[in-house]
Design a protein that fits this description.
The protein is of the alpha/beta class and about 250 residues long. The chain has one domain: Rossmann fold, CATH 3.40.50.300. The protein is built from ten helices and eight strands. The strands form two sheets. Strands 2-6-1-7-8 form a five-stranded parallel beta sheet, with helices on both faces. A three-stranded antiparallel beta sheet has the order 3-4-5, covered by helices on one side. A hairpin with a 6-residue loop joins strand 3 and strand 4. Helix 2 crosses helix 10. The longest helix is centred in the middle third of the chain and has 20 residues. It is globular. The chain starts with 8 loop residues before the first helix and ends with a helix.
Length: about 250
C-alpha cells in the first residue's frame, strides 16, 4: 500500500463526519504489514472519530516486560506482573500516543525485538483479559461521549467489539507486507525484506488464533492499493451504514 501524502479531505471527501451517527465504532483487523494502522488512523482523522491501536497496548506491555527482564516464556512470571505498568492511550488520530507509567513509548515499541516478542505475550489468556477489558473501556468511553472510534488490531471485530456496525479486514501479499515492514525499519540494517518475511511468517503462525476475520467483515486486499483508496473504501462503508441506519 503506497502513501500519497494526501489526506482523505484533500482527496475530495470533505467533512465526512456530518452524516454519521454519533458513537460509531469501526473495527479494522488484519495481519502486520497489511496497512491497517495507517489506514485506521487516517480513517479516524477523516471521520473525526477517536482512534485506538490495540496492538500498541500489547507492544507497550511487552516493551515494559523486556525492560524488567521478565522471561516471556514463563507465563506465570508474565501474569504476575501484568497489572504493574499503567498503560495510557491518547486516542487522537492526529497525534496518537501510548504511555507506560506516564512515559510515551510510541517509538521504542516498534522495534524488531518487541515485534518478535509480542505474540508470546498477547497469546496469554490472563494478559488478553486485562487488555481487552481496557480496550472495551476506551471504546465505551468514545460511545458515551458520542465521539465514535476506529479500533484496529487482530480481533476487534470478533472479540473486542463484535457489535461494531462497520468491520473491515485488511490483507496483503506476504511480499508486500514484508516490504512495508522493512521500509518502516529502514534505520535497522538487519531488517531486510527476506529477514522480515521470515519473522513475519513466524509471527503469523503465533497470532493465528486471534487473527480470524469476522463473518460480517468486508475483506480488502491492499497489495496493489494506495492509502487513499483504502481509506476511501472504509469511509464509503461508514457512510453507507449511516445512510441505512438513518433510514
Amino acid at each position: 500500500m503506497t502513501t500519497s501524502g494526501a489526506s482523505a479531505e484533500s482527496a475530495g471527501l470533505g467533512d465526512l463526519s456530518r452524516d454519521l451517527k454519533p458513537g460509531l465504532v469501526i473495527a479494522v483487523d488484519g495481519p502486520s504489514g497489511s496497512g491497517k494502522s495507517t489506514a485506521a488512523r487516517r480513517t479516524a482523522a477523516a471521520l473525526r472519530l477517536r482512534y485506538l491501536d490495540t496492538g500498541a497496548m500489547y507492544r507497550a506491555l511487552t516493551w515494559w516486560l523486556l525492560g524488567q527482564h521478565v522471561d516471556l516464556d514463563d507465563v506465570g512470571a508474565v501474569v504476575a506482573r501484568v497489572d504493574e505498568p499503567i498503560l495510557t492511550v491518547v486516542p487522537d488520530p492526529n497525534e496518537p500516543q501510548i504511555l507506560v507509567n506516564g512515559v510515551e513509548v510510541g517509538g521504542p515499541i516498534r522495534t524488531r525485538e518487541v515485534s518478535n516478542a509480542v505474540s508470546a505475550v498477547a497469546a496469554i489468556p490472563q494478559v488478553r483479559k486485562v487488555l481487552i477489558a481496557q480496550q472495551r473501556e476506551i471504546i465505551a468511553e468514545a460511545i458515551a461521549a458520542r465521539a465514535g472510534i476506529v479500533a484496529e488490531g487482530r480481533d476487534i471485530g470478533t472479540v473486542v467489539a463484535p457489535d461494531a456496525p462497520v468491520k473491515v479486514y485488511l490483507t496483503a501479499s506476504e511480499d508486500a507486507r514484508a516490504r512495508r515492514r522493512s521500509s518502516d525499519l529502514a534505520s535497522d540494517p538487519a531488517a531486510t525484506v527476506a529477514t522480515i518475511r521470515r519473522e513475519q511468517a513466524r509471527r503469523d503462525r503465533r497470532d493465528a488464533a486471534q487473527m480470524v476475520m469476522a463473518q460480517d467483515a468486508v475483506e480488502i486486499d491492499t497489495t496493489a492499493l494506495g492509502l487513499d483508496e483504502v481509506v476511501n473504501e472504509i469511509v464509503r462503508m461508514a457512510r453507507g451504514w449511516a445512510a441505512v441506519s438513518h433510514g
